[in-house]
Amino acid sequence: MVTTEHEVLIDLARQAKPLVPELIHQIGGLDLPSYVEVRDESEDCGESIPIERRADAVQTLRDRRGRPVLSIVFEVQRSYKDEKWASWLSYTVTAINQYDCPTVLVVLCPKETEARGAGELTTSASARSSCVPS
To answer: How far is residue 52's CA from residue 77's CA, in Å, rounded to a whole number?
Structure first.
C-alpha cells in the first residue's frame, strides 16, 4: 500500500541524488566505482510475461562517457513480508540486464524490526550484484 511516508522516502532518494550511493558506501561498506553522475532511471521492471513489476526507484552511476558503472535499485519496506524478496530479486536482475553493470539493491526500512527481517532475507542475486540490509 502506497503511503505518504513511502512516497516521501522515494522522493528523497530521487531529489538528493548522492544520498543512496552514500548509504551504500557508509552503511553497506561497499566501495563504489568511480563516477561523475547519478542518473534517475525508469522504475519499470516489466517482462515479456504480462506481470508488472515496478521498483520504487532505480538510479545509475555513470562514468565520464555516460556509461553506467553501477545501478541501484531502491526499495522502501515499511512492513516485513517474506514474499517481497522475489520481487527484489526480479528488480535487481532486470537492472543488471538493462544496464549491463554491477547492481546494488538498497532496502530502506524505517523500522528496526523490518530492517532485521529484510536483512535475514538478503543474499547475492548473482556474482555481479550485492544486497546489503540498511
So the answer is: 19
The interaxial angle of helices 112-121 and 84-99, nearest 10 deg, is: 60
Strands 103-108 and 57-62: unpaired
Q: Assess contact for 130 and 102: CB atoms under 8 A.
A: yes
Helix (H) or strand (E) holding 64: none
List, for residues 86-119, the tens digit of each pLDDT value.
888 889 999 999 999 999 999 888 877 666 666 6
Cα-Cα end-to-end distance for the chain: 21
Q: Which residues of 47-81 are buried (b: 16+ CB within 10 A; e: fewer)?
A: eeeeeeeebbbbbbbbeeeeebbbbbbbbbbeebe
Please, which pLDDT band fits residue 79 given cuts at 50, 70 and 90?
Answer: confident
Using DSSP's 3-state secondary structure scheme, residue 72 falls into strand
Q: Which helix (H) or strand (E) covers residue 105, if one does? A: strand 103-108
Which grid coordinates belong to 20? Answer: 543512496
Q: What is the pTM of this model?
A: 0.62
Query: Which residue is associated with the grid cell 521492471?
Result: 45
CA distance 74 to 24: 11
Strands 103-108 and 37-41: what pairing?
Answer: unpaired
